[in-house]
Amino acid sequence: TYSKLPGTSDSIFTVMSQLATEHQAINLSQGFPDYECDPKLINFVAQAMQNGHNQYAPMTGAPALREWVAEKVNTLYGSDYHADKEVTITAGGTEAIFSTLSACINAGDEVIIFEPAYDSYAPTVRMLGGLVKSYEMAPPEYDIDWEMVKKLFTASTKMIILNSPHNPTGKILTETDIQALIKLTKNTDVLILSDEVYEHLIYDGEQHRSLAIYPELRERAIIIASFGKLLHATGWKTGYCLAPEYLMKEFRKVHQFNVFSVNTPMQIGIANYLKNPETYLNLSSFFQQKRDLFRSLLAETKFKLLPCKGSYFQCVSYEHFSEEDDTVMAKRLITDFGVASIPVSAFYTRNTDHRVLRFCFAKKQDTLEKSVERLMKL
Ligand code: GLN
User: Which domains does the chain show, CATH number per domain?
Assistant: First the structure.
């Protein structure tokens, strides 16, 4: 039988969300909010449709939205992205990842990824004939030893994929990590895909270190971001990518034949809504409240909390009370306790025995309380 991607099937998010529905469990598996986005935002989108914004947007994205992106990024990170030449609106983060890899990876190219890693990276690299070189991070801190990363470098290294704030661990890149990365890539042609979709979800007064801040990295980086996370509307599948002009040209060659362009009324509606910066600037405190509540509730369960510095995911370890494989444990939590999570082993290519689960806390207070009530019975 034919298979281009043997060993790949429905993503863990699809599997766990389906199982949650089947068993009417509280779904803390796939990352998405269980509350509504701002009605004002919906009005702006409806208005865009009523005002006739219903035909193809420009291939690169609606100019007003690209201009908003460039201004936001350049203000926050002190960079100088050009709205026409260096910003493209994408059909969500995953399309941006796919188009970036398609535009950059040839057969035989090596790509370094840090595991646990978002599940689309490795299969997409392999689909293109690329080779995945994994650096495994381990709980509880998931630290990176850059001397070991250096050992993964060969003459065929084409790209490094970074993700900060990190899904699933909530880890963020530190200044030390960034400086090591600068040193490691200096005088090379290595490209960087920087998945920054959780850039505005960062806690305890920490700062997001976008690669846009660092000129040495900006010149070799494709940075990916998400309006779904920013606006609590993951189903709109809208995001953007930033890259220096020479890379953006290549990115757009693929993007145009992948989705051609992104749906128009969402882009116009989002651009009009975001004119008011209050709509997104307090995102960190909004989610920090949820994180703090969820952590204090979970502290009463048998689970051990791992750190969470960013993203809307909280990981817990249970290795001190069970030998059970994490996929088995996650399924049992759904069937026997009515709470869905993601087994973190799904983010590794090799088998690991970490026994860590990921919960999404982008949920109503009531949902978080009810789910922990159920987990208390464990
Ligand atoms: N990014 C989200 C998560 O990690 C889900 C993405 C998806 O389902 N493709 O849960």
Answer: 12-30+282-375 (3.90.1150.10), 40-278 (3.40.640.10)
